[in-house]
Amino acid sequence: MTSQATKTAEQVFAELDAYRVLDAKQQPSWPDQAAASAASASLATQPPLVFAGEADQLRERLAAAAQGKAFLLQGGDCAETFDAATADKIRDRVKTMLQMAVVLTYGASMPVIKVGRMAGQFAKPRSSDTETREGVTLPAYRGDIVNGYDFTPESRTPNPERLVQGYHVSASTLNLIRAFTQGGFADLRQVHEWNKGFVSNPARSRYESLAAEIDRALKFMDACGVDHSALTQTEFYVSHEALLLDYERPLTRIDSRTGNLYDTSGHMLWIGERTRDIDGAHVEFLSHVQNPIGVKLGPTTKVDDALRLIDKLDPERTPGRLTFITRMGAGKIRDVLPGLLEGVRDAGATPLWVTDPMHGNGITTANGYKSRRFDDVMDELMGFFEAHRAVGTFPGGIHVELTGDDVTECLGGSENIDEEALENRYESLCDPRLNHMQSLELAFQVAQELKQTR
Ligand code: PEP
Ligand code: CO
After folding, report:
1. What atom of ligand 1 comes closest to residue 121's alpha carbon?
2. Could you give the CA distance from residue 167 to residue 163 in angstroms, rounded to a whole number?
3. Rounded to an integer, what distance in angstroms lies between the CA atom of residue 207 and that of residue 187?
4. Residues flanking ligand 1, CB < 6 Å
5. Per residue in 371-418, pLDDT tens?
6. Residue 357 in 3-state DSSP?
7. d(Cα 189, Cα 345) in Å, to the nearest integer?
């Protein structure tokens, strides 16, 4: 992360392009190469979606979390879709995140850093390159930024025009997020308003009581003459898996202040469990940009893997630069995580540790749905806090797949969603998400755990 100011732009980009000769997993093969080059050229002329200074500010916030002084809440869809980028759905996801953040901030008396899996979470890694239905084999769906979900040859053929469309949908999503979070909607005095419009449920009532307490505290501060201007806006950052290099590369730009590279497609980018090979293209690519970087770590991760990732992605140990997002599975986290935490701590590194309690807990139900049990998600969360308590490291955040909608995709929760209920409202094209109520329930639990950690 040294200053690149003495290098020419050509030299800086030549170093970045070292990734091109390495193995890049999970990339589509565009049938029309000329169209792919045209899409790339078009993206390269578009304005940045985020600014370098914003990414730096997020890095500072994450540094506080790595030191135990803040907590990261990262959440959103498994896969955003172009069709679902509507004002209502975006608003409800933002509202859900704001509600969860209030529950956590108030419950744990700790600043909460809000980062959406939003405005760019369009590309998905798949276990197979193809999908076969009734004897017909077509390319697998890789997310709206690559191909369509409909099972026809036209829709499933990777289409690079989708790269440009993905950029524009991200831009309009981000614009709305910025308007919501900076235009008064996120004012803490709106704490009751965020709860409106959702179906009534026990978590909502519990939230309502907490909102009433906050209201009273605000009125008290008003009466004392405290200036509330800091409460009128909130910081909200966006992130996605930096999977599709034909999207990330043209949006990577040199910051005119410092001469350094930033991937301007999002504030924070992460590398998935399937693409985190130390010698692969994704790790190489992201080692050259200054954004905060996350890496997913599954249950087979060895201490040495983590240390090599630290050396490659964060050689100068810049606070807030590197976040490890563990996704071990409820049955494995208590065995695997403590050793990893110890090994990294003993090597003198202090990455931010975050739990993704979703991706290690997938099941397929008897009636054929990809689902997750709310209890397993909670169990992995508990295991995460236990492991950190045992080792003496800080459990710095959660990474969850959620929606503000009242979907039925994950089993359980206090609504007791059962297998049959999955048929009512299962909308995800990819992994199952916590619905509004399950998200709030989870936030209350995490606040409880965090209180004990402090
Ligand atoms: C995801 O976050 O949607 C994902 C695919 O996760 P992982 O890389 O951890 O499997
Ligand atoms: Co997912």
Report:
1. 3
2. 6
3. 17
4. 78, 125, 241, 272-274, 296, 327, 359, 431
5. 999 999 999 999 999 999 999 999 999 999 999 999 999 999 988 999
6. coil
7. 41
pTM (predicted TM-score)? 0.97
- Residue 198, CA distances (Å) to 89, 101, 188, 366 in order: 12, 17, 18, 30
Q: Which of 118, 274, 309, 359 to mutate to test the pocket of ligand 1 (most atoms within 8 A of CB)?
A: 359
Residue nearest to atom 1 of ligand 1 (CA): 78
Which residues have a Cβ under 8 Å from the Cβ of 434 and sit 6 or more positions away?
A: 374, 377, 400, 401, 402, 403, 409, 410, 413, 442
Q: Which amino acid is at 209?
A: S
CA 329 – ligand 1 centroid, Å: 13
**Amino acid found at 326:** T
Angle between helices 303-313 and 333-346 (to 10 degrees): 50
End-to-end CA distance of the chain: 32
Distance of alpha carbon 107 from alpha carbon 113, whole angstroms:
15
Whether the pLDDT of residue 271 is over 60: the answer is yes
Domains of the chain (ranges; CATH) run: 9-186+233-453 (3.20.20.70)
